[in-house]
Amino acid sequence: MVHGSVLHSRILIAGAGALGSVYGCFFRRAGYPVTLLGRTSHLDAIARNGLHIEGLWGEHHATGFELITDATQAKTPFDAILISAKACDTDAIAPAIAPVLVGDGVAISLQNGLGNVEKIAAQVGWERALAARVIFGAEVVAPGRVRVTVYADPVLIGVWQDGPCPHLEAAARRWAERLAAAGIPAAYCDDIKAALWGKVLYNAALNPLSALLGVTYGALAEDVNTRAIMDAVFGEVYAVAAAEGVVLPWRSAAEYHAEFYGRLIPSTVDHRSSMLQDLERGRRTEIDAINGEVWRRGRAHGIATPTNEVLTRLVLARQTIGSQVHQYPAVHTVLNSNVSSSREPLEPLPRPLSDTERGAESQSISPPSLAGNGARGLGFNASGVKVGQSPALTINKETLAAMEAHARATYPDECCGMITECGGREGVVQVTNIQDELHAKDPVQFPRTARMAYNMGPEAAPILIAAGRGELRLLAFYHSHPDHDAYFSAEDKTQALGGGEEPSYADAAHIVLAVRAGVVGAAKAFAWDAAARDFVEIPLVVASRF
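Structure (tokenized):
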């Protein structure tokens, strides 16, 4: 517990998402007056039940916050503003917080990437701006509840600008000490530029690849192709940092390899990048502040950074394509225009079904009866299982873990996606649930939100193209049932049939995951029984890849 007059220091957490909530909870438990600036759904849950933190640093609970959704709602100015908003939001949040910072207060950027502290200083003045490097991770598992998932190094706080700044150095030391005393490992850093560029080394290599491939950090380190790409990123970052006058803690990119693969990756092996989670939610990513800044600064110095450029463009393209294409009719055109004329056109993806077309059933109804439905006549053909002979869907444990992570990430909304197989390797394709967009555009036809229904987004198109060409196998579709059991409801059946009498993809199974309070429970598999003209439950077998 922190004692003394410091407890009168008012703290604003600007960006009370996953990481911001951790800072806020620990400072509040230490006795500080804390205001959380964040999203309504998260803050509403905190208002009702307090803020819960779980995971690597134990179980913690705090109440008594001031909760605001706009900085202008703050009742009094703040002695410290901890900015944990996404880098892509810095342009908007910096001018909003400037009026609520006391004259001798400090604004501390605890954000990913480069360029944030400069934008903040432009609004509050360099004499009140500090930078921090953060290498721990967290996720919002449910509104009001956050889990600390990974920790690699203490939070470092320091002064960004060059030259002596005694009062800012003192402030940096003071707030590092307070953060550490509150329970979050932290320390003062006398070369925060080098520390932040070191974090860029880490983020630029891992975040975009994890986001584009939908895998964990550990998976990236295991593959020879992704290792080669990450090594190329290291070389480019080193060249640009040197041109910026930054001396990194490691003498060369080769020396950093040992640190990266030997210490940093092992401590974050199961982590999924925040950039991946942003893409899953249809949000803007921080790519511009990470790889984009390396690319931009490289150009300014006449240094080629082709790897960072390509990664930046790919993530930006993924954002643009995902935000511009919302309706399946457009996807139908893409599908059929890309199929070779020597093949039959692909079965079109079902258009978004209105809630009226689906019927009045909700996910609280009883599952369809399986009485009298045998295994014979099933169209599903899973790997190693013969049709009509006790069919089962076999997936590896990594596939199940990826689906569960997706279901937790989107809770309390339904998630949706596909499981594929190519070259003997399974893959999980996480698809955006566009139900909320459909509901916003036409609430009469789509009265349900994503909490009770799903319609798959355009990411499904290239997968179905590849499946139609025989380039991969489509093993299963999956989706979650937030706060309901795992069964194939009448609504699920209507969705799978797409308005027809038989599913367009009869050989693909359907997996349903039950999620309650952000925790995944049962997962069950269902397949189309051509003889019974219905979907029946089949065994779901989970095996190790090794």
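The longest helix spans residues 192-213. Confidence is low (pLDDT under 50) at residues 1-5, 323-390.
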